[in-house]
């Protein structure tokens, strides 16, 4: 399995060098300090307040430590051990789950899905991934050379037909293909922004709601053929958001009641309060999620303006990066960077269960009290309500939220 990671390393580095050149040196150092242990079954144990818990559903994990440098005054090097469970049938690791963890280890979380694709693919598929990002043969050769693996890369068998010429030098691109903003002064975790500095905060700009749906490949955005040849129609457009009517509150959840042994699971689909968005698929779910993000973005901008900050500190990360591990970046009352995941529903109960991905769960664990989940209810209306749940992992530990790791669904307790 180490061989597979090493074979994919040059492709991942070439992609990284094109979009995030400042992370190249860290990648080269850390990939060399990553060891791999393969197992038939992986069970993670963690201890909190003297209690040991197990996470049997984990299939990949990178344990990290700091290795003191022999040079006086040098920073301790980050060292990792990757534990990979292999599929019992195929005997292949779960590369798509491992990709986001490898990206986090490298300090480039937004590349997690792309790393997973590269790890799970052969060279021909990797060629298509990199071609879409305008990565050239020279870029791949330079990456292999940096890793000391140029002699193992047969460029005569890859990247054919020839890729476009090198992109002119300029702003680097993020994974979603959008150019990075010039002079981006977005603070990193722990940076503080002094309130009241600079020019007065302007009114939050009006956000344009979605006006259509993503068109399927080779078709229009108004219809097309679903798998199996059956026709489908586009979902109805959602109403324009009335920005002044979107409401916001910070939740104060109580204890989640014990489940009724005789009750069925889930919410039973759409309808009134408690609707679970898992019954939505395709463009309809995309539109509802997008509407929720726009509503959350508006109330978050209003919140930071009320604290004395410029609304530009709120970044719609999901709009800038296709594979962003969270939806919105913002700041708290002390100016410290926080991370927001938006979960929208057509129902009116923010405590209804919802899906949470493995990558999102890892972000919640990693960022702790700097991570929030914004539940947007009545998302099909022009005036949704946004409920903020702060530090969801702490809520799980205190019994005020539950986490079903078997189906990866989270539920908050109703407000007291």
Automatic annotation (TrEMBL):
It comes from the Bacteria. Residues 292-386 form the Protein NO VEIN C-terminal domain. Residues 161-237, 251-275 are annotated as: Disordered. Residues 218-227, 262-275 have a biased composition (Gly residues). This is Protein NO VEIN C-terminal domain-containing protein. It comes from Cellulomonas composti.
């Amino acid at each position: 399995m180490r061989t597979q990671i090493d074979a994919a390393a040059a492709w991942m580095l070439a992609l990284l060098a094109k979009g995030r050149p400042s992370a190249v040196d860290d990648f080269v150092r850390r990939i060399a300090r990553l060891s791999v242990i393969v197992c038939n079954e992986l069970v993670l144990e963690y201890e909190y307040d003297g209690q040991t818990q197990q996470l049997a559903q984990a299939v990949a994990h990178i344990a990290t430590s700091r290795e003191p440098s022999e040079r006086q005054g040098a920073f301790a090097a980050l060292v990792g051990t990757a534990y990979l469970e292999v599929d019992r049938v195929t005997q292949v690791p779960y590369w798509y789950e491992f990709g986001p963890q490898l990206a986090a280890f490298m300090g480039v979380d937004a590349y997690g899905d792309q790393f997973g694709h590269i790890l799970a693919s052969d060279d021909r598929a990797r060629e298509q991934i990199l071609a879409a990002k305008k990565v050239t043969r020279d870029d791949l050769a330079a990456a292999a050379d940096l890793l000391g693996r140029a002699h193992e890369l047969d460029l005569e068998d890859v990247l054919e037909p020839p890729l476009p010429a090198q992109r002119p030098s300029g702003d680097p691109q993020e994974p979603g293909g959008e150019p990075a903003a010039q002079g981006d002064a977005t603070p990193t975790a722990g940076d503080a922004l002094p309130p009241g500095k600079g020019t007065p905060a302007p009114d939050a700009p009006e956000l344009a709601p979605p006006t259509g749906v993503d068109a399927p490949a080779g078709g229009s955005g108004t219809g097309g053929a679903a798998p199996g040849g059956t026709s489908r129609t586009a979902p109805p457009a959602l109403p324009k958001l009335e920005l002044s009517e979107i409401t916001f509150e910070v939740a104060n959840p109580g204890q989640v009641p014990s489940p009724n042994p005789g009750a069925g699971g889930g919410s039973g689909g759409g309808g009134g309060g408690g609707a679970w968005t898992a019954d939505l698929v395709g463009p309809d779910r995309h539109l509802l999620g997008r509407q929720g993000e726009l509503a959350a973005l508006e109330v978050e901008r209003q919140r930071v303006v009320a604290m004395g900050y410029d609304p530009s500190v709120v970044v719609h990360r999901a709009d800038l990066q296709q594979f962003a591990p969270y939806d919105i970046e913002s700041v708290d009352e002390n100016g410290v960077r926080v991370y927001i995941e938006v979960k929208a529903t057509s129902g009116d109960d923010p405590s209804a269960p919802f899906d949470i991905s493995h990558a999102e769960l890892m972000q919640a664990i990693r960022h702790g009290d700097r991570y929030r989940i914004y539940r947007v209810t009545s998302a099909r209306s022009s005036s949704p309500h946004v409920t903020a749940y702060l530090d969801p992992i702490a809520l799980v530990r205190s019994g005020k939220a539950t986490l079903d790791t078997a189906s990866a669904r989270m539920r908050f307790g109703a407000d007291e």
